[in-house]
Amino acid sequence: MNSKNITSDWQKALELFGSNQTLKNQFLTPIVHSELNAREIVNGFIEVERLLKDLKNQGEKISLRTLSAHCFRADSKFLDRRRKFLEHAFPIAKDTVEPRVIMLSAYIPEKLQRAIFIENFDSFRAAVKAIEAGDFSKSTAVIYSAGYRGSAAQIRQLNTCQFVTINHTPIEHYDEFVNWWFSSDQSIAVYFWGDFDFDGMSIIKSLREKFHNVTALKPLYEAVLAYHRDGVSHRDLSPKKNSQTDPIRTGCSYTDTVLLPLLRESGQFTDQEVLGGKELYQVINTAFTK
Fold this sequence. Notes:
Blueprint: H1 3-13, H2 21-26, H3 38-58, H4 64-71, H5 83-89, H6 93-96, E1 102-107, E2 114-118, H7 121-132, E3 140-144, E4 161-165, H8 171-181, E5 189-193, H9 198-207, E6 215-216, H10 218-229, H11 253-266, H12 277-284
Parallel strand pairs: 1-4, 2-3, 2-5, 5-6
Antiparallel strand pairs: 1-3
Helix pairs in contact: 1-3, 3-4, 7-12
């Protein structure tokens, strides 16, 4: 179907909103779905409004994905990138659609002195093992940061985050950690280690929205760069051309003056998993020594 037909079908479908011109104005741009036609999509949003009103009257709430599945033929992800649009078109959604909870995995120490965000799960587990076996086990938190780039604005909000701890943590140590996390405290040193690519650098930029002092953990990146300089690297492997976007500037001096220029010059990426085992243990357990 060409764009002219899509626009025509969409305009006809908007008549389902009846005389509500204000609502029609919110939907002037056609929404396309691979299996739903224009009328089915508009009817889906009509059902969204009806369901949200019923929920508010009953004093209940609903998750975004459950709402989406109910109203758009079991497609639970249809509304994932449309939450702001949904709240703008139907303000009632702000009161009835639950915030998406971010589940965070963390190693929590006895006395929090620093925290390390790690991008990929295998490297997260390897880093935790290295921390547990070394000199910084009682002072260093390790957090698995996959997926944070798109939700950085919510990661320090009490109602949108929950933690899964991967070590046995006494309640007083856990409380100290979460009290810091769900505050505006910027006194704890915070580091990030991820893939040497633009996506990894973008995570640093996003995390700095809430953890203002996040910096790339230089010793770990330097160890990865040793592999990168020896040719252990690859181009963007995504089937979508140019899928990674240069963040231009992150606010971290080391990232902006060293890592990003190297990425731009080489056009090559190196995954953090190249660093592991004894080498990772040695690097991570000397990373904080003066």
